[in-house]
């Protein structure tokens, strides 16, 4: 029974189905033998007619019993096979002896039980069955020759026996090979099922989001983390990322990655992209894509995206995987650690840094009164500039402790921005038409006026550094986001921020300018957070020439919910003229 016990459940089921097929074939053979007896009795003598008939009828009854046993008695498989093969050989042998002429055609019937034994039984039993048939044919030939009966020659009987052995060996070898392949496929299938189950558990529980899309950005599947990050509901798929306004930053980053890697090898990766997915609220008349996107979000998510291409047989079935990581909590934790370090530093800055710094600055001013040579003046200027830079850094650090209590009085952005623009133009000495002030909304926001002034001045100063200086090269305007909140956009026509710089844009002491302290944008974001607002840099889509949608970058201040009616923004527009 080691032959049967070593098989898997799938292979055992295959053997039972094969035995059922063998039983059905046995019924067909018995019916053919009876039909042969009814239409042509010349090969059956009168003396053996009753034996032939009774044997065929008994064989038909036993064939039916064997078929029912295969269906309802699923035990002792090898025993059932041995009994059925023995009955087949015995019945064919009786019919062979009952017939006088045409015995050669009956010999062919032995192939049926011998092939069945070769397929369903161990090779030893199959060869034993072939040996029994060969021995019977040889003994029958010897008996017929001894009795003077015209029968099969001994040589022909030997040839039949050799052919039966050869057939049994070949069929048994092929059947064993198929069984081994099926066992291997079964094991691999079981391993694959286990691996798929593990993958489903890992993908479902992993904190990072996983999104499967085609080369055009149509969503096929996503794990729960991705659905939560993007605001997708279970089953949301079939629409493109670019069809949903809130997901356009993801679509743009995916398109940029495809242009970078091109037709690269599967798994090719590019630099990580950082995007912000904002809250979304259906206005009641969206496109097909927005209708399919049934999820809702309450908070914006700052996501880090990575991409990979799946190896597929053709371009039509190409799939890509987007890995999403919500880095908002990581960034906040990192900034909290840095803020704690700076807090300990702030306690001693006033005495340990500012006093010596003031002494250096005073000494430099006194030396400048006595030293007038160009070389000496240049050195004194270097010292003075660095004193000013360090003093500004100290002021920025000390300012962190002065932003704790904001003034929550309502603030109208229109008069505030007009006054701030006039002051900025005068202090920076720029033309009146460089900074373009667009729609400013009509609903007040909750933001401390001094804090907002410092944030906007910081953003305008950065924009002035990189803008072209032409008319309207710096744009400031208010828009309404899809969740009904107000956003203040500050945008310039200079080169956009690269993904590498974007990854560290709001980190303290990170700067790309030799004259910067690296604290301006960090302080601006902290001031926004202190006023329940959010400052971020976004890659957004604008309407370009000839209907082409181009992407640009801008700083966006997302205010808390307006103090007026929920979602009422006066004359605010979703898209400003750009």
TrEMBL record:
Q: Which reaction does it catalyse?
A: ATP + protein L-histidine = ADP + protein N-phospho-L-histidine
Q: Would the keyword Cell wall biogenesis/degradation turn up in this protein's UniProt record?
A: no
Which InterPro entries does the record match to this protein?
A: HATPase_C_sf, HATPase_dom, His_kinase_dom, HisK_dim/P_dom, HisK_dim/P_sf, PAS, PAS-like_dom_sf, Sig_transdc_His_kin-like_C
Top-level taxon in the UniProt lineage: Bacteria
Pfam families (alphabetical) = 6TM_PilS (PF25323), HATPase_c (PF02518), HisKA (PF00512), PAS_8 (PF13188)
Q: Which Gene3D superfamilies match?
A: 1.10.287.130, Histidine kinase-like ATPase, C-terminal domain, PAS domain
EC code: 2.7.13.3
Q: Which residues form the Histidine kinase domain?
A: 348-565
This protein's UniProt keywords? Membrane, Phosphoprotein, Transmembrane, Transmembrane helix
Membrane-traversing stretches: 20-39, 51-75, 81-98, 127-146, 158-176
User: What is the protein's name according to its record?
Assistant: histidine kinase
